[in-house]
Design goal:
It comes from Algoriphagus lacus. Belongs to the peptidase C56 family. HSP31-like subfamily. This protein has one domain: Class I glutamine amidotransferase (GATase) domain (Rossmann fold), CATH 3.40.50. The protein contains 9 helices and 11 strands. Strands 5-4-1-6-7-11-10 form a 7-stranded mixed β-sheet, sandwiched between helices. Strands 2-3 form a two-stranded antiparallel sheet. It is globular. It starts with a helix and ends with a helix.
Length: about 250
């Protein structure tokens, strides 16, 4: 058994961005990590007995996307929202993440990588050179990788000729959901969008479920999920993958 599997450590990488520019930079919107997309995955993995470390681009504490606090995103799990808020605000280890560069140096210590969604990662992680390096390292070592909602967009940071995920079946926020978010929630288009199209252009197979419905896909060591309502589907697939690796 490999060292990283014995350790049972999982690395959570999060955006630390707090502002998203819309309408070609003419409009600013608060952004960050979607709280339930982070916490449901985090709780499931922690409850299963795995240790968790945290990293952000520069080591700054991640920001919550205020949209994600809406009760709409916590249907069936509303009692967990105060617990999630308390963890985010008061957990010392979470509040002091390591810089992404250090996480890359320590990647041998981890058996898995999880990146929660939220538009924040489309502001910082997608431009950070450590992001493709980390994804490639985990993929080449056949470690478990979980990318939630917007996070599959980070696969596009790796050039096609060296992208280890070419040919994989993936999921992400769907084209209709992107349209709905931009039209009715954010009321403006961000610079980085059309994730499904970008994934297809990289020769990945793209699948999605209905808008606002739970949906996730696993292909080999990669689990991807669609939206804030997909935690149950994501957790089931990802925990099974982690169990196979121990």
């Amino acid at each position: 058994m490999s060292t990283f599997a014995q350790n049972g450590k999982v690395l959570f990488v999060l955006s630390e961005a707090d502002t998203l520019l819309l309408k070609k930079g003419k409009k600013k919107r608060q952004t960050g990590v979607f709280l339930n997309e982070f916490y449901f995955a985090h709780k499931a993995i922690s409850d299963a007995g795995f240790d968790i470390d945290y990293a952000t681009p520069t080591g700054k504490k991640a920001t919550i996307d205020q949209e994600s606090i809406d009760d709409e995103y916590w249907k069936g799990n509303l009692e967990l929202k105060p617990e999630a808020m308390d963890f985010w605000e008061n957990n010392n280890e979470f509040s002091n993440p390591m810089p992404l560069e250090k996480a890359l140096e320590k990647q041998d210590e981890y058996m898995a990588l999880v990146i929660p969604g939220g538009q924040g990662l489309m502001v910082d992680l997608i431009y950070d050179s450590n992001t493709p390096a980390l994804l490639k390292a985990f993929a080449e070592d056949k470690k478990a990788i979980g990318l939630i909602c917007h996070a599959p967009a980070l696969i596009t940071t790796i050039p096609k000729n060296e992208n280890p995920f070419v040919g994989y079946t993936v999921n992400s926020v769907s084209p209709f959901e992107e349209f709905y978010i931009e039209k009715f929630i954010m009321k403006g288009k961000p610079k980085n969008r059309k994730i499904a199209k970008q994934l297809k252009n990289l020769a990945l197979e793209y699948e999605n479920g209905g808008p606002g419905k739970g949906f996730a896909r696993r292909d080999r060591n990669l689990v991807t999920s669609q939206n804030p309502y997909s935690s149950e589907e994501f957790n089931e697939l990802f925990l099974k993958l982690l169990g196979e690796m121990k």
